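Protein modeling request. Please complete all fields; requests missing the sequence field cannot be processed.
Requester role: graduate student
Desired output: 3D structure, C-alpha cell encoding
Chains: 1
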Amino acid sequence: MKNNHLKNPLTASQKKRLIRLLLAAGCFVLLSWVGINSSFQSHQLLYDSANSAAKSLTQFMALNAKNPLIEKNKSQLTTLCNNISKDEFVLSATIYDKQGVVLASSDNWQSHHVYGLLPDSSPGISKLKTPFVEQVISDDNRPIGFVSITYLTRAAVSSSHNHFHDLGRQVLLMLVIACIFTWQLGRGLKRWQVNRYIQKTSEHES
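Delivered output (206 residues):
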C-alpha cells in the first residue's frame, strides 16, 4: 500500500526555490557590504593613526624648540631637526621664526619655493607626503616661531596596510572553505533524505 503522505525530497515548489535564492542573494549582499565597509574603516583607521603619530611628533618638536628659539641657539635647533628626521617616516624637519624665516633644518631638507608646495615625487619616495606644522609658544603665550615636518604618510601605513590585506585574504579563504563545507553537507543531507525516501517507499509498496 502506497503512503501518500511521504513527500518526494527531489521535488521542491517554486516558492521554496525562490526563498532559497533570495536568502542566498541576501547573504551575498550582506557579506559584500560588510567586506567593503570593513576595508574602508580599516584604511581610515590606519591613516588616522599615522596622522596622530605625525602630529604628536610635531608637538614634541615644538616643545623642545622653545628654549633654543628664545636663546637663538641655532646649533641646538639644527640638532633637534636632525634628531626628529631620524624617524624613518620623517622626510625633513624645519624650524622657522615668527616671520617665517628658516632658522634650522635637517640635513636632508630641501627648499621648495614653487607656491610653497612639495614636489610631486622623488626617487624612491612615496608621492604622498604630508606637511605638519605646529606653532612654538613662549611661556607668556607669545608665538615665537613654528616647526614643520614632512611626513611620509603612505610609507608609515604600508606595513599595516599589507597586514590588513593578508588578514582579509585569510578571512575570504575561510569563508570559501565554509561555503564549500556547507554545500557538501547540504548535498549529504539531501542524499540521506533521498535514500530514506526510497527505502520508505519500497517498504510501503511491499
